[in-house]
Amino acid sequence: MRITVVGQGYVGLPISVCAAEAGHTVFGFDIDEKKISKLKLGISDSPEVSSDKLLDLQFQNKIKFSSSIKDSSGSTIFIIAVPTPLDSEHKPDLSFLTSACGLIAQVIEPRSLIVNESTSYIGTLRNLIKPIVDRQSGLTDLSYAVAPERIDPGNKFWSVKNTPRNIAGLTTMATQQSADFYSSFCDSVNVVSSPEVAECSKLFENTFRQVNIALVNELSEVANKLNFSTHEAIMAAATKPFGFMPFYPSVGVGGHCIPVDPSYLSYSAEMAGVDAKFIKLANEVNSAMPKMIKERIKDYLGGNLIGKQVQIAGISYKPDISDLRESPALDLIKELEMAGAIVSWHDPYIDEYNGTQSEALSSEIDLGLIVTPHSQINFSIWKKTNVKVIDLSANSNNYGWPKFL
């Protein structure tokens, strides 16, 4: 089959590659001309896709990249994999999604299938995507399905191939078409009863994480006031062989899924006339963490951060990737700088951020902060020179200093 994947980011590119490897002819579209130029040269920001693989698939004519949607003519399946961020008021920003629908409508042919992988509120496929494409294309025989993405950038075990996929179409035929397609490169396809169930599953699985992270972040404040170790208490609770799943406190939550998906679920609740208090509270708790941590660091350094040299180890939102989306480390930098600290940072995956560059770990600082402990970061300079260090990382690993949260 000839497939078009609209969007070649962290979600769309791995899908394009997996579909091409499964024997489909894939057209990878993105409006970002610079990104397309890099992909043609085998350059990718996705940790799941190697340069050799990109070049090899292009050499075999199994995949083609372009910033012109007209090159996708003849495709029978269109996969939507575009960003769905939040706007300045923390509401869904579907501008990329609606734009993608408009572009597809320009070139789609009768009896084609459209599958949405982009995260959005419950009812998006039925109430937004289908009406736009039907109206702008003038076609009445198109099929629609949803297969929410479950990409975990940098995960060396779970990939597009072995991560179960939830799928549902607006019709029985659309469900079968999409299930057949995804079964060609996914080990497990789980068909659910409606697109709304599939859309909700994606939102709820990440809201589950958001709520539990907020819970342990609140526990961290309790532990601080009562002078015991949050991590030790969590690890003690985790010895229970049933009914418990450990989460660890952190600077906050980053990436697209955990900070964003709960807001889409909350928005869905609002549309249904439900006040999702629990979700809103979890969002508030995790969003407040950088400010709370800044205050605790201030106390740790004697009540004053003015002029203090602070260096952060790792600023991406998770270890061993370069993704800065919603990274709480960036909010922590802002909080520290507003309090008068002089902040530098070290990240082997990021060269530049907001006009500043990554710097080697230094001993000429007042405080080091471990935020995102990439496996490539060597903390020996801090250990050898007895620099004050605070470990803010969201895991149970011991890097040589007690956990601060």
Question: Quick gist of this model?
Answer:
This protein has 405 residues and is α/β, with parallel strands linked by helices. 40% of the residues lie in helices and 14% in strands. It contains 13 helices and 14 strands.
Model description:
- It is a single chain.
- The chain has 2 domains: 2-193, NAD(P)-binding Rossmann-like Domain (Rossmann fold, 3-Layer(aba) Sandwich), CATH 3.40.50.720; 205-391, 3-Layer(aba) Sandwich (Rossmann fold), CATH 3.40.50.
- The mean pLDDT is 95.
- The strands form 3 sheets. The chain has an 8-stranded mixed β-sheet, sandwiched between helices. It has a 4-stranded parallel β-sheet with strand order 10-9-13-14, with helices on one face. The protein has a two-stranded antiparallel ribbon with strand order 11-12.
- Helix 4 runs parallel beside helix 5 and helix 7 crosses helix 9.
- It has 13 helices and 14 strands.
- The radius of gyration is 23 Å and the shape is globular.
- It starts with a strand and ends in a 14-residue tail after the last strand.
- It has 405 residues and is of the alpha/beta class.
- The longest helix is centred in the middle third of the chain and has 32 residues, at 195-226.
